[in-house]
Amino acid sequence: MPSRETHGDLPPSIRVTPPGPSSRTWLIRHAHVAAPMGPMLPPGPPSSIVYASGRGSNVTDVDGNRYVDLAGGFGALLIGHLHRNVQRVIALQGERLLQALGDLYPADAKIALLERLTRLFPEANALGILAQSGSDAVSAALKTAVLATGKPGVLAFGAAYHGLGYGPLAACGLRESYRAPFAAQLSQHVSFAPYPTNAQSAAESLDGCRRILSGGDVGAVLIEPVLGRGGVVPPPAGYLAELARLAREAGALFVADEIWTGLGRAGSWLSTVAEGVIPDLVCLGKGLGGGLPISAVIGRNQVMQSWRREAEVVHTATFAGAPLAASAAIATLEVLGKEKLPQRAATLGDRYGAELRTALSGYAAVREVRSRGLMVGVDLGERPGAASRLMKGLLQAGYVTSTGGGKREVLVLTPPLNIDEAVLFGSIPVIAEQLSKSS
Ligand SMILES: Cc1ncc(COP(=O)(O)O)c(C=O)c1O
After folding, report:
1. Closest atom, ligand 1, to C-alpha of 164
2. Are strands 66-69 and 127-131 parallel, antiparallel or unpaired?
3. How many domains does the chain have?
């Protein structure tokens, strides 16, 4: 058994019904200074809390309530809050260097990270580009595809999410409402096929892809190997392989957005590779930095070499590969490997998914429980607001969760991969109880 550093994850301890008075005060202050990104805070008492601290799979709010964090920073805390190795490395790097000079005079930590990351790619001599957010990594991948193929078109998928910067936003099928206000400024070169949920829809989706690819101008087929924000939807077996084949045939790159699924979240280092597919480019982000913002595109040498054809440097960012986040990422990759967390996510996720499925099988409100590794979705069907109500009930019972799906109809669980087993399984009766109350 690999030794796994435990953080002493604890069950919830709710002293004051969330949101408590301190959270409410902070949220009022927040509302005075943060631009309102839509109707997030309805009139009346707010239903969110304000975090004060976190350790392992627990977070504590400003009222002193302790929660079990089953959302994990939207899947970004693969090794939990403040992992000691990450903390140590941040402290050491903080004594050495915080900022280098991009690609001109890069930091040693950036180079060491790229050496590690490119080894994750299933082919030798892979190359990488570092970025700050998932959205940045997808932008870099889309640019790479244009340079490598000379074709501007992107084939993307309904219900998929790739970030909200202008490049990725144009390819976000998840919600029309994300794109609608900015449609006039978005790339007109994106076509959507439906994301498949079963064998029949896989055949229909592939037909749609063939039609789009037959136009001849698609340079990138951009896909999440399992829909994350779209509600934890794995495609049927064999779908990704056939899609990759169609992409190659059409002279397009197969770009795997593994920002959610990758680095163990879905039970393997890379979901595409576990499915027997060798992508041309892979986007990574979220958990890569152990809680610090850093992302990457890694890909086939020949594809990445297409940047060399430009007369000068045409893509960069001030903080891309900044040493603090790069060294945190190295520590994170080390922990994931040493503690065999991708494998743990696969076995623990299977058992948790099965047990949750059994526990919720008698509930008419539940359409389906889906899981792949430690990404789990409880699909509550079309009833408006059902997943948000369940999420709120769970918060009051001491569990932080999130929602996904086009209509936010899915309760989404993405706990740290090193979460204490008893603490994780302790959530099952609570989810069942809250489901009874909220439906
Ligand atoms: C699959 C996928 N791609 C890209 C992104 C965008 O990442 P970020 O929010 O860091 O820009 C996300 C975020 O949820 C994601 O799930």
Report:
1. 11
2. unpaired
3. 2
Query: Of all protein residues, whose CA lies closest to atom 7 belonging to ligand 1?
Result: 134
For the beta sheet containing 253-257, the strands, ordered from the edge strand earlier in sequence to the opposite edge, are: 127-131, 295-299, 281-284, 253-257, 218-223, 153-157, 190-193
Full domain range(s) for residue 103: 84-338
Segment 263-293, tens digit of pLDDT = 999 999 999 999 999 999 999 999 999 999 9
The answer to whether the pTM exceeds 0.90 is yes
**Statement to judge: residues 227 and 204 lie in one domain:** yes
Q: For residue 145, what is the domain's CATH number? A: 3.40.640.10
What pLDDT sits at residue 43?
Answer: 46
| Cα torsion 344, 345, 350, 351: sign | positive
* 163 Cβ closer than 6 Å to some ligand 1 atom: yes
Which residue, chain included where needed, has tokens 């998932």? Answer: 134
CA of 165 to the centre of ligand 1 (A): 10
For a substitution probing ligand 1, which of 77, 78, 130, 162 has the most ligand atoms within 8 Å of its CB?
A: 162
CA of 358 to the centre of ligand 1 (A): 31
